Amino acid sequence: MTSFAILLSGRGSNMEALAEAVQSKKLSGRIAFVASDNPEAAGLRRAAELGLRTAVLPYAEGKKRGEEELRELCRLHGAEWIILAGFLSILSPEFVRSFRSRIVNIHPSLLPSFPGKHGIEDAWRRGVKITGVTVHLVDEGVDTGPILAQQAVEILPGETLESLEERIHRAEHSLYGKTLSLLFAGKGLTERC
Ligand code: GRF
């Protein structure tokens, strides 16, 4: 069974959706551990409540130390894939190269539109009519890796940012598990991967 680590920095709703997908066997895999660069992350507490192994990465001592620890945890607990779920630190090019095509991210817009930290709000402010969610492999850039799956979300007339955020997160929670399920089964990879 495919073993994966989840990295997060915040509330962890995507982590929770993945844990639920594993629990209900919609996603065939094992969560090796959940780790964060932020000791205060609500998602880390939630993961512990769910009975998952958790760890704080020592990013406070620098990115190098944080990544060394991440590498060691993956080795120790047999994580073959690293799944980013709202992880705010940018992984170094060296780290990405050593885990080439085995790190996945979810982004709340239709990439390449609206990369960066505020994908939902940027699309909403720009007044686009359709935005969405992207699951992609991580490369050395920010939100630039090969796209695995996308789901469109229409921005409704007069929609508030809060309502759009909620609908985007709902789309994320279903798309991430489905995409990882295909990926772990050796499907869903494009020839670019
Ligand atoms: C999600 O919108 C994800 O696309 C982005 O960060 C957010 C994390 O949300 N990369 P959560 O912590 O999973 O609730």
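The first helix runs from residue 13 to 23.
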